[in-house]
């Protein structure tokens, strides 16, 4: 708006005896202000708002103001969202009679203007006097979950009521059509967005955003646990990639004493085992005999402890015979140290924090299986040439806190990562570091100080002949190797045994299999690094591996949520010498037309937003398995956008940098900005809506 026009508007207000009444008269006789965007009406209203601030005597009170407020409230149903705040401020609507405000909102609601009613309620803070289920139901049917979140954002009691309502709708016996029936004629109604799966995801998002106790939503939690059970049965009986003890730990912790889940467990056991196997696991999980099917109950009566031990021993012998097919630790068992005291840990520090040291670093945490909360590191593995240290982080943190030394562990970790004379090796270190920050909040933003960190994930896709299909063909029986296991197979000849990967790493004592797995995961990084440095050309790498790694380093560490942008400084120490060069610039800028993505089904809002900006987007349907994203990405050369647990699975199935984890707690606009910045996508005015009909 030109300065001349602004000055003319302000002179006009100064000449009016009653500027507030004058503005209303203008609005009532014109329709220009009803248009979205910066219309002349918008300009006049915002200038009056500024003018009033400079002339405090103008605002009115009493009967005259109430009459003006009544006229304004009658116009709000036609008011664009960007004019609400200025009009509320100018006419002091927050001082109007509350009952009258509620009636105005109710009138909007009855006219079917649900979005407008909700927005006005938020602006005037009317939510405590409204029925949260009534206000939010039509918004959810119109796929306006973000507005629902804003509606309850400042009111914990309404958050709980909304969550309890959503949980009731997710009860298996509840008929969702009972909710949708009154809204059959609703404009912009999206029935495909209103089902138990979508509602369940919304519940988990709200639980995490508002930090509400998940026990408030038993139906959603039970359904999530049931999906976990199905996943565990698939891993154990179909993929055969979990040991029996590991599987049993998770089954027991998932089911607990929940009678409904115990019933589901028995049904799954009967589907995958015979009656005797079902009885053995029912006994192991302490399922009440009276709840078992007759055949299983009879087997349970005949089951003696001798038979159970015999069965377990047989299974263990079978599994141990397979170990020769996997990578084996080249150091003796007595050189693996499980550290639970600070006295032991200080001795570990002295060895690790030596100039020129090369350290393999890995971390383990209990898998969340999609439950609320960020994973907290339960075990930190540090591998040196001759020994491996396994640090029991929960125990060490507890001891440090009890001794008033909360900064003790973060201080050690920061010293390790910031020391340029020590080379730290990892695989997918950004994900590990974000979990470490969730465990030790004192480490937040410390990743900016990292030096001499080598992420072998950056080398992974450069290695010749490295693909999941190759590993699959060689073995024929096991699922194809992927991620670090595939790299180990290619470089060392045998893959990692990943059957303990999804262990309950918080349970103590750790099983022997867990200790060996954790040590192998860290130690194999040393062997891979040494092999690649000795003979990089035989693996299709440049003769100077250090230079190859530098090319993959980002100029600045990415935010912790951007898990697939790896920071890989050149290594230090004796194993691999090479000139240090400056980190390259961010990726070359590209236009939205050159950027194609496939969005996982929990990011459909992000997908639609990116499409509006001209990006080539494919969206997974709600019913699609997450793995379909990898198929589409490989076939069509797209980048995968996903979030949470599926990221760990999907990123190993596509090339490096072709899978990106988005912060699911952010709104679509913030998610889109995160994606555009990460891939350096430059949006111009001509791109906006270029793909829309």
TrEMBL record:
Positions with biased composition (Basic residues): 551-563
Keyword DNA-binding included in the entry's annotation: no
3'-5' exonuclease domain ranges (all copies): 336-537
InterPro entries per record: 3'-5'_exonuclease_dom, Exonuclease_MUT-7-like, Mut-7_DEDDy_dom, Mut7-C_RNAse_dom, RNaseH-like_sf, RNaseH_sf
Region (Disordered): 550-585
Single GO BP term: nucleobase-containing compound metabolic process
An example Gene Ontology molecular-function term: 3'-5' exonuclease activity
CDD domains membership: mut-7_like_exo
Pfam families tied to this protein: DNA_pol_A_exo1, Mut7-C
UniProt keywords, alphabetically: Exonuclease, Hydrolase, Nuclease
Gene3D superfamilies in the cross-refs: Ribonuclease H-like superfamily/Ribonuclease H
Cell wall biogenesis/degradation is among the record's keywords: no
Family annotation (PANTHER family): 3'-5' EXONUCLEASE DOMAIN-CONTAINING PROTEIN, EXONUCLEASE MUT-7 HOMOLOG
Protein name (database record): MUT7 Exonuclease
Gene encoding the protein: Exd3_0
């Amino acid at each position: 708006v030109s300065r001349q026009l602004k000055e003319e508007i302000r002179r006009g207000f100064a000449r009016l005896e009653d500027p507030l009444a004058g503005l209303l008269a203008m609005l009532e006789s014109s329709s220009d202000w009803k248009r979205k965007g910066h219309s002349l009406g918008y300009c006049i209203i915002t200038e009056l708002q500024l003018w009033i601030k400079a002339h405090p005597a103008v605002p009115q009170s009493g009967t005259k103001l109430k009459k003006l407020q009544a006229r304004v409230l009658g116009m709000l149903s036609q008011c664009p969202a960007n004019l609400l705040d200025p009009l509320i401020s100018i006419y002091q609507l927050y001082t109007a009679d509350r009952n009258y405000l509620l009636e105005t909102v109710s009138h909007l609601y009855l006219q079917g203007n649900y979005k407008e009613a909700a927005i006005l309620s938020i602006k005037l803070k009317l939510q405590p006097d409204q029925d949260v289920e009534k206000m939010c139901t039509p918004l959810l049917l119109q796929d306006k979950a973000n507005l629902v979140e804003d509606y309850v954002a400042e009111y914990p009691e309404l958050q709980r009521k909304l969550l309890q309502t959503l949980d009731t709708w997710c009860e298996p016996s509840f008929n969702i059509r009972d909710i949708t029936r009154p809204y059959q004629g609703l404009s912009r109604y999206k029935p495909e967005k209103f089902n138990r799966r979508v509602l369940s995801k919304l519940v988990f998002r709200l639980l995490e955003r508002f930090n509400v106790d998940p026990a408030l939503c038993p139906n959603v939690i039970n359904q999530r646990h049931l999906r976990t059970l199905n996943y565990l049965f698939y891993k154990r009986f179909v993929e055969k990639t979990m040991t029996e003890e590991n599987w049993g730990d998770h089954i027991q912790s998932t089911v607990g004493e929940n009678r409904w889940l115990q019933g589901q467990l028995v049904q799954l056991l009967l589907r995958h085992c015979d009656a005797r196997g079902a009885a053995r696991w029912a006994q192991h999980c302490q399922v009440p005999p009276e709840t078992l099917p007759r055949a299983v109950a009879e087997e349970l009566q005949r089951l003696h402890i001798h038979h159970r031990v015999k069965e377990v021993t047989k299974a263990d012998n079978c599994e141990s015979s397979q170990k020769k097919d996997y990578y084996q630790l080249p150091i003796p068992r007595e050189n693996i140290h499980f550290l639970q005291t600070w006295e032991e840990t200080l001795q570990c520090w002295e060895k690790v924090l030596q100039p020129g040291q090369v350290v393999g670093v890995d971390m383990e945490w209990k898998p969340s299986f999609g439950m609320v909360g960020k994973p907290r590191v339960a075990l930190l593995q540090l591998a040196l040439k001759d020994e491996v240290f396994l640090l029991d982080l929960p125990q060490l943190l507890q001891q440090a806190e009890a001794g008033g030394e909360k900064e003790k562990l973060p201080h050690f970790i920061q010293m390790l990562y910031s020391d340029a004379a020590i080379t730290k090796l990892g695989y997918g270190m950004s994900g590990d570091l974000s979990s470490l920050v969730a465990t030790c909040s004192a480490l937040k933003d410390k990743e900016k100080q990292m030096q001499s960190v080598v992420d072998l994930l950056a080398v992974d896709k450069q290695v010749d002949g490295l693909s999941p299909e190759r590993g699959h063909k060689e073995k024929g029986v096991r699922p194809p190797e992927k991620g670090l296991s595939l790299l180990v197979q290619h470089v060392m000849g045998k893959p990692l045994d990943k059957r303990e990967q999804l262990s309950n790493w918080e349970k103590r004592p750790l099983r022997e299999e867990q200790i060996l797995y954790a040590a192998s995961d860290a130690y194999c990084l040393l062997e891979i690094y040494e092999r690649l440095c000795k003979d990089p050309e035989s693996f299709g790498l440049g003769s100077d591996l250090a230079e190859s790694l530098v090319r993959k380093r980002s100029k600045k560490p990415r935010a912790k949520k951007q898990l697939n942008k790896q920071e890989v400084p050149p290594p230090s120490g004796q194993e691999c010498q090479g000139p240090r060069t400056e980190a390259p610039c961010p990726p070359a800028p590209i236009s939205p037309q050159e950027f194609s993505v496939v969005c996982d089904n929990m990011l459909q809002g992000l997908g639609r937003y990116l499409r509006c900006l001209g990006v080539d987007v494919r969206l997974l349907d709600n019913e699609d398995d997450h793995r379909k994203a990898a198929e589409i990405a490989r076939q069509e050369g797209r980048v995968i956008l996903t979030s949470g647990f599926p990221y760990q699975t999907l990123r190993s199935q596509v090339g490096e940098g072709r899978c990106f984890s988005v912060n699911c707690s952010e709104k679509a606009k913030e998610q889109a900005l995160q994606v555009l910045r990460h891939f350096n996508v430059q949006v111009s005015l001509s791109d906006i809506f270029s793909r829309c009909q």
